Structures are given as structure tokens and as C-alpha cells.
Amino acid sequence: MKNPNSAVGMTKNNLGxxxxxxxxxxxxxxxxxxxxxxxxxxxxxxGLFERLSETLMYSILLFEYSISPNGGxxxxxxxxxxxxxxxxxxxxxxxxxVTYLLHGFTTWSEYIRRISENLLWAVLFGFATLALIxxxxxxxxxxxxxxx
Length: 148
Description:
Largest sheet: none
Distance between the termini: 98 Å
Number of strands: 0
Number of helices: 3
Structural class: mainly alpha
Helix content: over 70%
Shape: elongated
């Protein structure tokens, strides 16, 4: 019997992975409504930098509340942070190792190329020397047999 999911390229393995991803996505995407922000009660008694930071924090929270009072923005940021961490941690651990191995491979392949080139030149030099000896010997024999 034919698998009904095979038309879209879904196998049991892929379907399981998809369902696992969907479960992770649903656990990460849980927007919670946020309450309207209020400035600090002792705002008047704060120093210059504390007032500045409190004003900045209130403005950011008010902006977030005005865009997404149901908490969708925070959930979206949380989800993107999760995806970023899941993507960045392997990249920071695996990419340097792979780069180091590839660098070592290129170094060794360069050594092998040089060895091969040197062997080729040694063989060619040997053949050239042998040919020179043979031709020179034949020439000497020919000259010695020739009568003037």
C-alpha cells in the first residue's frame, strides 16, 4: 500500500521531525498579554541618570504595549532568540573545527602535490639522463666504428 504522505515527500522520519519541530515551535510560541506600563512612583525623587533610565524604560515598554498588548511581540522575539541560539551554538562549535580540518587538508594536499611533482621531475630527469647516456653511447660507438 502506498504511503499517503509520499506525494508531498514526507516519510515517517520526516513526519516525526516535522511534528517534533511543531511541538518545539508551539512551546516557544506562547504569547501572554502584558499590562499597561506605569512610570515609577518615586520618579520625582530619582537622580538624573535614574530618571533618564526610567523614562527610557517606560517609553520602550509603552511602545511595546502599543504595538502588541497581547504579548505577540515578546513571543516572536523569544522564538527568534531560540532559533538564533539553536543556529549560533552549533555554528560557533562546529565551524571552527571544520575550518581547522579543511586547512589541515589543504596543507597536506599541498605537501602531496609537491611530493608528486618532485617525484615526477626525478623520474623525468632519470629518463632524460638514461636517454642521454644511451644516445651518447650509441654516438660514441658509431663514431668509433666509422673509418676516416
